[in-house]
Design a protein that fits this description.
about 270 residues, alpha/beta, Rossmann fold, Dihydrodipicolinate Reductase, domain 2, 2 domains, seven-stranded parallel beta sheet, five-stranded mixed beta sheet, 8 helices, 12 strands
């Protein structure tokens, strides 16, 4: 009989948070993974869990050296964590936000130098990725669009990483499309006015207004609204539970083993 492949050894940072707990359950249900450690604010003094809890990222990396570091911490911690992972030769899967384009480029260079891969995903939900793709396609045919994103009241960043990513992809599609004479969205003048006279018009990303709603009862929702001559097109996605992100998390933790460099966006693993 062929030998069974060794499981992928994973450390989960932010394991006690809402996303972290959901991710732990999803990974534990998959025999291809082995959770070897978690990073939490306050490790339990006594634990019957088969993994070790740590409060210090460097100590975890030195003692366990996992194959994959799955990060669901926060904007204040994530960049330092991933810098340490890359330095220790551990593949990062980043679900937290707060990093910049410069961070992505730095991680990409260092991972390639070590012949390793990583992935940073603004959204792990398959439906959300399809929503962004459909919005990018629609952007070829409309000059005006706005994004409204709705999240739970505990989400710190606004606009969300998904909304920013959507606007960037929409703008890139218009720039690359040969069917449009106008390459930028028709929001340049409106943005100048909004900065002084209309602060309620949202934050502009690539000349697309983004409006952020933060309320209890919400999970993660987004709609992209296109306005044309006598018509409106709305593309909407709703994550009703954090379980919607788990197929993408499992995919990322599996496929990161074969990547090289830092991949930005789960869609690159789908199409």
């Amino acid at each position: 009989m062929p030998e069974r492949e060794a499981p992928i050894r994973i450390a989960v940072a932010g394991a006690n948070g809402k996303m972290g707990r959901e991710a732990m359950a999803a990974l534990l249900a998959q025999p291809r993974f082995e959770i070897v450690a978690t990073l939490v604010r306050t490790p339990a003094a006594l634990s019957d869990k088969p993994w070790t809890e740590y409060a210090d990222a460097e100590q975890l990396l030195v003692q366990k050296h996992p194959d994959v570091w799955l990060d669901f911490t926060d904007a204040d911690s994530v960049v330092g964590h991933i810098d340490q992972c890359v330095a220790f030769g551990v593949r990062p899967v980043v679900g937290a936000t707060g990093y910049t384009t410069e961070d992505i480029l730095r991680w990409d260079e260092r991972l390639r130098a070590s012949d390793l891969g990583g992935i940073a995903a603004p959204n792990f939900a398959i439906g959300a990725l399809l929503m962004m793709r459909f919005a990018s396609e629609a952007a070829r045919f409309y000059e005006r669009a706005e994004i409204v994103e709705y999240h739970h009241d505990g989400k710190k960043d606004a606009p969300s990483g998904t909304a920013r990513r959507t606007a960037e992809q929409m703008a890139a599609q218009r720039t690359e499309s040969a069917t449009n004479e106008r390459l930028a969205f028709d929001g340049v003048y409106e943005r100048r006015v909004a900065a002084v006279e209309q602060p309620a018009r949202g934050l502009f990303v690539k000349d697309i207004p983004i409006h952020s709603v933060r309320l209890p009862g919400l999970v993660a929702h987004q709609e992209v609204i296109f306005g044309g001559t006598g018509e409106v097109l709305t593309i909407r996605h709703d994550s009703l539970s954090r379980s919607s992100f788990m197929p993408g998390v499992v995919l990322a933790c599996t496929r990161v083993m074969e990547l090289r460099g830092m991949t930005y966006g789960l869609e690159h693993l789908l199409w």
